[in-house]
């Protein structure tokens, strides 16, 4: 009997405790909602959109770009924090008065809101410190202002063929997930001025050159959906790359030319300069590619320039190899008199020319004797003239070839360095002019 009485008292105590916990919650809700809003919310159905039977609801949007934190060429994306504001009219929320009502952001769960999402978002989250960053404001005519703060990582397709002198155009696309154009219509509230904050942004490697908005539709298998697109153009700041990559590579090329002023007998010094500059240039090229995607489809402008510099440095090393080889070959050939060598060269040239002349003249003599004996027709004479022209052209070609060979014949290997001192800097300057003009203006 005593145990039954104790159990009944315990049940009564728990019931009273549960009732005391429920009363403050109800009172809290009544305190949050004004009487006018309580009256509206009482018959409100958040699962039905405004103007459910009277056409689509128009949703106006505007944004403030708080920051663009990172722009990654490797992942082809950017991370931005935005303040997204949406406005629409809900006739069920009209009330008497001339002032708007600012409500707690947690009451958004009691109202209908558009199902807007960011199309190319890889990862997004809503800020919730110290509470969820939401704003709900209702006007007497039923207009609802809904604002949220979002940080999102959005993909951006980049063309890196002119890196680091490139310009990238990225987009931020807002679209309705479930409502098609028959249910919801999107529009920018102030056109191109609907997006603000870009003018005050300070980016590490980029400068925002231009931005504009557009209204379009997304076509899927399930229907046509409203879409708003924000375009912004980013221009990369090249000063960092000039100081970090271009200037060191130019200095390495100039350093490789120092070997042209060193004596050819100083083999260790010239080899040391050539190998050191080649290895340093290789390290610089590898470091320039670490922050870029390893894609074969992109032949970037910086890769082209580093390849040019590497070619000049490697060419300076090969120049000394050729010079040293010609010097050794000249020293080994000094045992024979120079006059004999010249006579031999002349005899070889004369022998080749005589062979060509004989091959051309032999058919002519036979043809002449044949013409005297058999009195050939005028057609045979024309053929003789053509053969004579062919032989004479062959003789001129052979003479030109001999002249070309004489030009490539190095009589004094020490002159190779003199030619290199002039040709290497001149060609490097010409290639630089062509490179910068092409990538900056085309």
UniProtKB/TrEMBL annotation:
Membrane-spanning ranges: 238-259, 271-292, 304-328, 422-441
Domain Neurotransmitter-gated ion-channel transmembrane: residue ranges: 245-389
SUPFAM superfamilies per the UniProt record, alphabetical: Neurotransmitter-gated ion-channel transmembrane pore, Nicotinic receptor ligand binding domain-like
Broad class of the protein's primary localization: membrane
Domain Neurotransmitter-gated ion-channel ligand-binding residues, every copy: 37-237
Domain of life: Eukaryota
One function term, GO molecular function aspect: GABA-A receptor activity
Topology versus the membrane: Multi-pass membrane protein
Pfam families listed in its UniProt record: Neur_chan_LBD, Neur_chan_memb
Keywords, comma-separated and alphabetical: Cell membrane, Chloride, Chloride channel, Disulfide bond, Glycoprotein, Ion channel, Ion transport, Membrane, Signal, Synapse, Transmembrane, Transmembrane helix, Transport
Bias (Basic and acidic residues) ranges: 365-383
Subcellular location: Apical cell membrane; Synaptic cell membrane
Quaternary structure and partners: Heteropentamer, formed by a combination of alpha (GABRA1-6), beta (GABRB1-3), gamma (GABRG1-3), delta (GABRD), epsilon (GABRE), rho (GABRR1-3), pi (GABRP) and theta (GABRQ) chains, each subunit exhibiting distinct physiological and pharmacological properties.
Function: Pi subunit of the heteropentameric ligand-gated chloride channel gated by gamma-aminobutyric acid (GABA). GABA-gated chloride channels, also named GABA(A) receptors (GABAAR), consist of five subunits arranged around a central pore and contain GABA active binding site(s) located at the alpha and beta subunit interfaces. When activated by GABA, GABAARs selectively allow the flow of chloride anions across the cell membrane down their electrochemical gradient. Pi-containing GABAARs are mostly located in peripheral tissues.
Name of the protein in its database record: Gamma-aminobutyric acid receptor subunit pi
Species per Swiss-Prot/TrEMBL record: Geospiza fortis (Medium ground-finch)
Record lineage: Eukaryota, Metazoa, Chordata, Craniata, Vertebrata
